[in-house]
Amino acid sequence: MTLAHAPYLCNRMLSRLILFLSSLLLAAMVVAQPADNELNTTDAKGHKQGAWSRTWPNGTVRYTGQFKDDAPVGTFKHFDEEGILTTIQEHAGDGKVSRARHFHIDGSLMATGKYVGQAKDSTWNYYGEAGQLTKVERYRDGKLDGEQVSYYPNGAVAESELRKNGSLEGLNKSWFEDGQLKSQATYVHGLAEGQMTFFHPNGSKEIEGVVVQGVRDGTWLYFNSDGSLQLQALYKKGELVKERKENGTFKDYFDDEQLKSEETFKSGKHEGKFTEYHHNGKWELRTLPADPIKGTLEDMERVLIGQTKKREGSYKNDLLEGEMKEYDEKGKLVKTTKYAGGVEVK
């Protein structure tokens, strides 16, 4: 190497050295940046500081937010595994209290309310995907407390219940969609107590009776929609002791829900046609095809197959009247008997 080449070599080495030092300086500057500009950092005490983000196992973001001294501050956003925003949570003060907005999958508002820690507090409002208010809940220390109200899609009140420390307490009512009272009952320490009443849509009573510590006790009355008495039932500490059929058509069932009998009563007496059934049917599941016109999806329904009649006939003033037919389990008529005033006609 000649001295003529020395200046060139020195200049090239100097350039590389400057580039190397510049790289070190840049790296040092990056390392020396404050923790607040980095993700998921903790300080010497192990407290979360600055911006944090966590991901789901599939790699999508689970939440993003800021911490200060291990406490959440400002806005946190939460996402599901598909990356869809589910919650925006605004933290205040020391991070223990926050206001949240939860969203439906289509992005519409689903619920708004307050958290203290991870427990719901104060008033929470819930909304349907169309934006209508569906429910109002009130909390204290993470438990339902105060009046809870649910609504029909048209905005009418569906139910109002009172709770104390999570348990039902006081008068509770429900309504039909047109505003007509549907039911009312009083609760004490979470159990129904005293008079309980249900109503038909036309406003007449449907059922009424007394409840003691959450179970039926004494005589319960059941009414038809025209106001006539349908059934009287006597209970003792929740157990049915006996019942008396008064007016209307009644169906009795076997334990597996196959129809056992169907009969009509008037003023407490058999009146009109009756039918009894063999316990020989079988339940089958059948597919209900989707209906694009009604907008229904494919579904399943349970259908009773093969059950046959056992006896059929008529009553008049609680006495058999006319022909009574009897069938075997295959449905074949095996006997016909005629009655007049409850007496067999030979």
Summarize the structure in words.
8% of the residues are buried. Among the domains are: 36-144, Histone H3 K4-specific methyltransferase SET7/9 N-terminal domain; 247-346, no CATH class. It is mainly beta. It is 8% helix and 59% strand. The strands form three sheets. It has a 20-stranded antiparallel beta sheet that branches. Strands 21, 22, 23, 26, 27, 28, 29 and 30 form an eight-stranded antiparallel beta sheet that branches. Strands 24-25 form a two-stranded antiparallel ribbon. It has one helix spanning 6-31; strands at residues 41-42, 48-55, 61-68, 71-79, 85-92, 97-103, 109-116, 119-127, 133-140, 143-144, 146-151, 157-164, 167-168, 170-175, 181-188, 191-199, 205-212, 215-223, 229-236, 239-245, 248-253, 259-266, 269-277, 282-288, 299-305, 309-316, 319-320, 322-327, 333-340, 343-345. The chain contains one helix and 30 strands.
Strand content: over 45%
Overall pLDDT metric: 90
Under the CATH scheme, the architecture of the domain at 36-144 is: Single Sheet
What profile does the largest beta sheet have?
20 strands, antiparallel
The low-confidence runs, each spanning 5 or more residues with pLDDT under 50, are 1-36
Helical content (DSSP H or I, runs of 4+):
under 10%
In total, how many beta strands? Answer: 30
Radius of gyration: 37 Å
CATH topology of the domain at 36-144: Histone H3 K4-specific methyltransferase SET7/9 N-terminal domain
Distance between the termini: 143 Å
* Principal-axis shape: elongated
The CATH class name of the domain at 36-144 reads Mainly Beta
Count of DSSP H/I helices: 1
User: Which class of secondary structure composition applies to the elements?
Assistant: mainly beta
